[in-house]
Amino acid sequence: MARRPRLKYTHSLKAEIWDRYEAGYSLWSIARSIDRSSSSIYRQLAPTGGIRPPERKRSKNALSMTEREEISRGIVANLSIRTIALNLGRSPSTISREINRNGDYDSYRATQADQNAWDRALRPKRCKLAVHPELGKIVESKLRLQWSPEQISGWLKREYPDEESSQVSHETIYRSLFVQARGALKKELQQYLRSKRTIRRAKSSSLKGDGLGRVPNAVPISERPASVEDRAVPGHWEGDLIEGSKNSCIATLVERHSRYVMLVKLENKRTETVVSALIEQAKQLPDELYKSLTWDRGTEMKAHQRFTMETDIQVYFCDPQSPWQRGSNENTNRLLRQYLPKGTDLSVHSQSDLNEVARQLNERPRKTLDYVTPADKFNECVATIH
Q1: Fewer beta carbons within 10 Å, N or C terminal of the chain?
Q2: Would you say 183 and 204 are in contact if contact means Cβ atoms under 8 Å apart?
Q3: Is the pLDDT of residue 205 over 50?
Q4: CA distances to 5, 26, 305 from 32, in Å
Q5: pLDDT attached to residue 201
Q6: Where are the alpha helices (DSSP H) in the chain?
Q7: Distance CA 367, CA 331 (A)
Q8: Are the CB atoms for 336 and 242 separated by under 8 Å?
Q9: Residue among 152, 129, 139 nearest 189 (CA)
Q10: Which CATH superfamily is domain 221-384 in?
Q11: What is the pLDDT of residue 370?
């Protein structure tokens, strides 16, 4: 089999690769478009962690290639430094430094001098987390608690509103993690990010497949009161199952007003098992804080009428293939995969384990709550009914 000819990754080709990557193309599709392997594309993106390096620009005060060629010609013609400087409209000290740092009169070459200037300009500017090591330590500690960079950034703004040196943007945190040349955060901290990726990539949405059975006497979400929709009133929940290997599953519940999370251990996903577990869970909350439940059309809720009869909690069902109608729950399920990865046996987790996972999620600040934690928000609701 003939080997593919060697491909030179020119500046324009690299720009095209970055354009496609930023537009959302996969490594495989980018590679196919230039007849390369995906690993070769990965090697182009990995050094900067999937973050496009800024376009390099020459300072307007720097000597140009044309000026360096004039210097070289002046040396060959045995012109003095002052004469060369006068011809270029530069100071003699500028010309003298240029010649001395690039091999003196005998070995000055314009092309090499220009390349040397570019190489010297590669020294990266120190990032904020490197300049302020105490801030870096705070960021590292929160990452180890599995806070997202955006949560960390929002929390710092609330915690230190008047101290600019104690604040940092989430983008700076991501860049410090993925661009190791910055030397601010250790590469090992990437493991605490939810995506587990080794290079930066925009999130892509995923929808569940169909395969949902019919739920008898389901009350559609269109009949849910408007007061539930605007999240102004607490006590309205969204629910779903997350599944693992060996037919294991866990029920997830999220309160729409506060984004407070509860997890329920299940022995299986039969409707009697699920509904019985949800009934027991509902009994742990005051009636004022559990008024409705919105679920998808999974057959595990076929016995929803028994749930409503025993708890006086109305169940509403989303439209088919419309997970965004339970947006808070869908988002929470993605967060939970950080603790309960896909393809793992969820039955090994006790209810105590699940309570601890829920506690950690509830104590994370949320952007949608202006970086207040769900636990604090939910506790405010509890306080108002006593």
Answers
A1: N
A2: no
A3: no
A4: 15, 10, 53
A5: 67
A6: 11-22, 27-33, 38-45, 65-76, 81-88, 92-100, 104-107, 110-120, 128-131, 133-144, 149-159, 170-178, 226-229, 271-282, 304-311, 327-336, 351-362, 374-384
A7: 13
A8: yes
A9: 139
A10: Ribonuclease H-like superfamily/Ribonuclease H (3.30.420.10)
A11: 93
Q: Crossing angle of helices 11-22/38-45, nearest 10°? A: 100
Phi-psi region of 280 (alpha: psi -120 to 50; beta: other; left: phi over 0): alpha
- As a whole number of angstroms, the distance between CA 227 and CA 172 comes to 39
pLDDT at 191 over 70: yes
pLDDT of residue 374: 95
Q: What is the mean pLDDT of the chain?
A: 85
Q: What does the block give as tokens for 152?
A: 């960390």
Residues 6+ apart with CB under 8 A from 35: 4, 7
Taking a C-beta distance cutoff of 8 angstroms, is the pair 81, 104 a contact? no
Tell me the domain boundaries of the chain.
11-48, 65-120, 128-192, 221-384
Write down the pLDDT at residue 316. Answer: 94
